[in-house]
């Protein structure tokens, strides 16, 4: 699969969904590539029609960090992390939406154990 096909699909779908900033970026990258003549007009037309659209992405498409409540851009040079707190985004396998991630850690517990061979009660403290 060629990069130009991927960028064109990204630009077309971004434009259809209302992610105009992302679509502009994809069309700008396409302008820098060698495009066959049969696709050149389609790409130029898509880029021109995009100029009449807003300069920001649709509010409902922008991922929000559940840790610091920052809205993040769809295209991030730092990877799939929050631009403010660097919390990685974890996406649900069923809905492909970012899910709030909670850190789990083991809490030390104390419990009593009696031995079947003796009548002594043993206190066990579980540590890290």
UniProtKB/TrEMBL annotation:
User: What are the recorded Gene Ontology BP terms?
Assistant: intraciliary retrograde transport; non-motile cilium assembly; protein localization to cilium
Task: Name any GO cellular component annotation.
Answer: intraciliary transport particle A
InterPro entries, A to Z: Ift122/121, Zn_ribbon_IFT122
Give the IFT122 zinc ribbon domain ranges. 58-97
Pfam families associated with the record: Zn_ribbon_IFT122 (PF25144)
Question: Keywords of this protein's UniProt record, alphabetized?
Answer: Repeat, WD repeat
User: Where, per UniProt, does this protein localize?
Assistant: Cytoplasm, Cytoskeleton, Cilium basal body
Where does the protein principally reside? cytoplasm
Q: Could you tell me the superkingdom of the organism this chain comes from?
A: Eukaryota
Q: PANTHER family attached here?
A: INTRAFLAGELLAR TRANSPORT PROTEIN 122 HOMOLOG, WD REPEAT DOMAIN-RELATED
What's the protein name? IF122 protein
User: To which species is this protein native?
Assistant: Polypterus senegalus
Its lineage reads: Eukaryota, Metazoa, Chordata, Craniata, Vertebrata
């Amino acid at each position: 699969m060629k990069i130009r096909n991927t960028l064109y699909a990204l630009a077309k779908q971004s434009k259809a969904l209302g992610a105009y900033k992302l679509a502009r970026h994809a069309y700008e990258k396409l302008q820098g590539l060698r495009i066959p003549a049969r696709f050149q007009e389609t790409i130029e037309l898509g880029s021109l029609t995009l100029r009449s659209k807003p300069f920001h992405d649709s509010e409902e498409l922008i991922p929000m960090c559940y840790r610091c409540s920052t809205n993040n851009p769809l295209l991030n040079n730092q990877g799939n992390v929050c631009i403010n707190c660097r919390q990685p985004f974890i996406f649900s396998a069923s809905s492909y939406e970012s899910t709030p991630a909670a850190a789990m850690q083991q809490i030390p517990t104390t419990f009593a154990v009696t031995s079947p061979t003796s009548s002594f009660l043993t206190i066990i403290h579980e540590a890290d």
